[in-house]
Amino acid sequence: MAGIKRLRKLQFGKETTAGTPVPATTIWRGTGTLEDKREPYFPDEDIGYIAPVNRAVFPFTQGQLDLDEVPATFEQLPYILAMGVDGVVTGSADGTGSDKIYTYAFPTTALKTPKTFTIEGGDNEEVEQMAYAFAESFKLSGKAKEPIMMSATLIGANVSVMANFTGSLSLPTVEDILFQKTKLYIDAVSGTIGTTQIPCTLYEFSLDVTTGFQAIYAANGDLAFCKINGGMPDIKLHLVFEHNATSKDQKAAWRSLTPKLIQLKSEGSAVATAGTTYTKKTLKVNVAGMWEKFEKLGENNGNDVLEGDFRVAYDPTAAKYAEIIVVNELASLP
Q1: For residue 32, how many C-alpha atoms fall within 13 Å in the half-sphere facing its CB?
Q2: CA pair distance 37, 2, nearest whole angstrom
């Protein structure tokens, strides 16, 4: 029987020991296919043959999974953040509320360690497995009248064939995060992030993150990478504003090299029991930094718009860099 696209599946399992494969525990509500990135080495030889002679070796192994853009959800966005920011897979209690708080703070003076996962992928014809998976990069983006979208590039130690998918997994219930439910806040670094709301001005945004995590290859008795090193993340926030007093002020802040605090806050449905801090499922993107560039005036349905690139960086006055907070009702990631 031929492989059927509609029978493709991706399943994730949290690794207890990084790099040691585990059975999957949840189904990813999105799309993507595993790619085996090993490359054969064909040596050049002077052996009296005009024709090339078969001789090759695989000197290393590596796998990759590009998680295609899919609506971000309060329940599954934390998988990407655990693999790409900080290895948090258990939510913190919010008083006596039913909600759980997942906080992913980007590193400032100490390195973070990602949570690694075993990924299962394939269809009805063949199932493959990639262990030691972490996020090399990820993206969040949103625009008017659409869900907020998430995507990521995951790197793993290798891709191997397995007999079957881990069975008996229930399809997880998820809630999409919507752009229209998002609020934009911009504050001075001497103030409090999330204080000054800028209503009816943001048309779209994109948050592009290169995590800084890298696979390290060194002699270790194995073809796969032997560890994951942390490094400096690269975080860029792109905003598209209506051209109004707010965007004019931000352009003036760019010209004066004035740092800012920006928060994007998206709320979903109410949790069963309100907590001390949150009453609804929530996504908060908190960043400090400075405007790097503003484009010339653009246009959206007859309205002038202004596009700006915000360089996320630690600000000593605010003592803030970047964090992403997700609030859902999962005690831990399945």
Answers
A1: 24
A2: 24
Q: Supply the pLDDT for residue 2.
A: 85
Specify the DSSP class assigned to residue 297: P
What's the pLDDT tens digit per position in 197-251? 999 999 999 999 999 999 999 999 999 999 999 999 999 999 999 999 989 999 9
Running DSSP on this structure, what letter comes out for residue 105?
E
Residue 301 — pLDDT band, cuts 50, 70, 90?
Answer: confident
Q: For residue 302, what pLDDT is reported?
A: 87
Are 138 and 167 in contact by the 8 Å Cβ rule? The answer is no
Kindly provide the b/e burial profile for residues 111-149, where b requires at least 16 CB atoms within 10 angstroms of the residue's own CB. ebebbbbbbbbbbeeebbbbbbbbbbbbbbbbeeeebbb
Q: Are strands 214-216 and 298-300 parallel, antiparallel or unpaired?
A: unpaired
How far apart CA 91 and CA 73 sit, in angstroms, is 15
